[in-house]
Specification:
79% of the residues lie in helices and 1% in strands. The protein is an all-alpha fold. The protein has one domain: MFS general substrate transporter like domains (Growth Hormone, Chain: A, Up-down Bundle). The N terminus is likely disordered.
C-alpha cells in the first residue's frame, strides 16, 4: 500500500511539471530515486522509536530526566563523530559504498541491544545507540546529496523535499511501535514504588527491570534484521551514476576552504543545528510536558506524539506543493515564525491549548530540514559530498540541546511556571535562528533579481 501511494505521488509530481520545466525526477533516475528514498523511512523509524525511550529508561533504571536524556546525546552523538569521516569515505569512493557502510553499522548497532539487555546497564544501551547512528550518519551523508544530484539542479530542493516527505512514514511506524509494542508492554509499577522495591526487595526490582529491558530489545532486534535485508538489496542493485567521478583523489583542504568561504553554507549549518535541536526537543519531551501539565500517562502522551507526526507528514506534502509557488527561503521564514509563535503558546497557554500548540509545531517543522539542506548545498557541485557532512554534523544539535531542556524540566518551577513549560523557550530560540536564515536567503535572492 505504501509503495502504491509512493508511486502515485512520484507520478503526480512528474506530471504536475509544465512542459517547458525540467522534470523533478528524470526517468533514468526513477528506480534509484525510489530505492534510495526507502532509506529516509529507515532512519525516520530509528529516530522516532528512540525518542520515547528517554522516558522509558528513566522509569526502568530510575534515572533523572537529565540522565535519561543521554539517550539522545548518544544517538545524535554518532552523527557528530561520524559525519566528516563518512563524507571523506563517500568522496573517496561512491554514494553506494557509503550507503552499504551505513546499513552495516546500523544493523550492528541494533544487534548490540541484545548484550546490552543482558547486562541490564544504561551505558551499553548508549553504546548501541551510538553505533547505530554512526551508520545513520553514513546513510544521511550519502542519501541526501545523492537525491539532490538525481536530476537538474534547479529542481534539486524540490526533489529532496519529495524524498524527505517519506521520512515520516518510518517515523510514524516507529512511534506506533514505541507506543504499542514497548510503552504499552512495560510494567506499570511507578517510579516511586520501584525505588522502594530497590531498597526492600532488590531481586524483585531486578526482575521487573530485566523484563522491561527485554521489551525494549525486541523491536530493535527486528529492526536489525530488516536493515540487514536492506543491505543485501542495495548490494545487488545497480544504482545510477549522477556525475560523481567515482574512486579518486580527495582535495580535502581545498574543499573545506571553499565551504568555509560560502556564507550561505556556513549559516545553513548553524540553522540546521538549531532546527534539529528544536525537532528533538519538541518530540522527545512531549511525554514529559503532557505528564507535568495534564497528568497523562506515557502511553497516552505518546498517542499525541503520533498525532503530531501525522500533522508533520501532511504538512510536508502540502509544503512541497507550495514550493511550486514560493521560494524555499520565503517558505522557511514563514514556517519558522509560525513555529516560534506556537512554542510561546506551549509555554504560556493552559491545559490542552498549550499541548495542541506543541503538537502544532510539527506542521511548521515539516519542511525545515530538507529546505535548509537544499539551500545550503545549492551550487556546491562535487563539494556537496563533504558539504553534506557539515549539515549532518549539525544534527549534533539533537545531542546538545535535549540535556539542556531536561535540566530545566528537572526543576519543579522556573519563574513561577512548571519547568516543563519553561523548557520550551529553547525551541523558541531555535526558531528565531532559523527565521533569520530564511530571511537572509530571501533577501539575497531578491537582491540578485533586482
Amino acid at each position: 500500500m505504501t509503495k502504491a501511494i509512493g508511486c502515485r505521488v512520484f507520478k503526480s509530481c512528474l506530471m504536475s511539471q509544465p512542459a517547458t520545466s525540467p522534470k523533478t525526477i528524470p526517468k533514468s533516475y526513477l528506480f534509484g530515486f525510489i530505492l534510495v528514498t526507502t532509506l529516509f523511512s529507515l532512519w525516520g523509524f530509528a529516530n522516532d522509536v528512540t525518542n520515547p525511550m528517554v522516558a522509558a529508561f528513566k522509569n526502568i533504571l530510575l534515572l533523572t530526566n537529565t540522565q535519561s536524556s543521554l539517550v539522545q546525546s548518544a544517538f545524535y552523538g554518532g552523527y557528530c563523530v561520524m559525519a566528516i569521516p563518512a563524507a571523506i569515505f563517500i568522496k573517496r569512493f561512491t554514494y553506494k559504498s557509503g550507503i552499504l557502510m551505513g546499513l552495516g553499522l546500523y544493523a550492528l548497532g541494533c544487534l548490540l541491544f541484545i548484550p546490552a539487555g543482558n547486562l541490564q546497564q544504561f551505558a551499553p544501551f548508549l553504546l548501541a545507540y551510538f553505533v547505530m547512528t554512526c551508520g545513520l550518519s553514513f546513510l544521511e551523508t550519502s542519501a541526501n546529496p545523492y537525491i539532490l544530484s538525481m536530476g537538474p539542479e534547479e529542481t534539486a530542493t524540490r526533489r529532496l523535499n519529495l524524498a524527505q516527505a517519506f521520512n515520516p512514514i518510518g517515523s510514524i511506524t516507529g512511534m506506533f511501535v514505541a507506543k504499542e509494542f514497548i510503552l504499552a508492554r512495560l510494567d506499570k509499577t511507578d517510579e516511586g514504588t520501584r525505588r522502594e522495591m530497590l531498597e526492600t526487595d532488590p531481586d524483585a526490582f531486578a526482575a521487573i527491570a530485566k523484563s522491561d529491558l527485554d521489551v525494549i530489545v525486541g523491536p530493535y532486534l527486528i529492526l536489525g534484521i530488516v536493515v540487514a535485508v536492506a543491505f543485501v538489496v542495495f548490494a545487488i542493485s545497480r544504482l545510477p551514476r549522477t556525475g560523481e567521478s567515482g574512486p579518486g583523489s580527495l582535495d580535502l583542504g581545498g574543499t573545506i576552504k571553499r565551504l568555509l568561504a560560502n556564507r550561505r553554507y556556513r549559516r545553513g549549518v548553524v540553522a540546521q543545528a538549531f532546527y534539529v535541536g528544536a525537532q528533538i526537543m519538541c518530540w522527545t519531551f512531549i511525554i514529559q510536558y503532557a505528564g507535568a501539565t495534564m497528568g497523562m500517562s506515557k502511553e497516552e502522551a505518546q498517542g499525541y506524539n503520533i498525532i503530531a507526526m501525522i500533522i508533520f507528514v501532511s504538512s510536508r506534502f502540502i509544503c512541497t506543493f507550495l514550493l511550486h509557488y514560493t521560494s524555499p527561503g520565503q517558505l522557511l521564514l514563514g514556517l519558522a515564525i509560525g513555529g516560534g509563535l506556537l512554542a510561546l503558546g506551549t509555554i504560556f497557554l493552559p491545559g490542552m491549548i498549550g499541548l495542541w500548540c506543541l503538537i502544532g509545531i510539527s506542521a511548521c517543522m515539516s519542511l525545515m530540514f530538507p529546505t535548509i539542506y537544499g539551500l545550503a548545498l545549492d551550487g556546491l557541485g562535487d563539494d556537496a559530498k563533504l558539504g553534506s557532512a557539515g549539515l549532518i554534523l549539525a544534527i549534533g544539535g539533537g545531542c546538545l540541546m535535549p540535556p539542556l531542556q531536561a535540566m530545566i524540566i528537572d526543576q519543579e518551577t522556573v519563574f513561577g511556571l512548571i519547568g516543563a513549560r519553561v523548557s520550551f523557550f529553547l525551541p523558541a530560540i531555535c526558531f528565531i535562528v532559523i527565521a533569520l536564515y530564511g530571511w537572509s536567503v530571501t533577501r539575497k535572492s531578491k537582491a540578485q533579481v533586482s
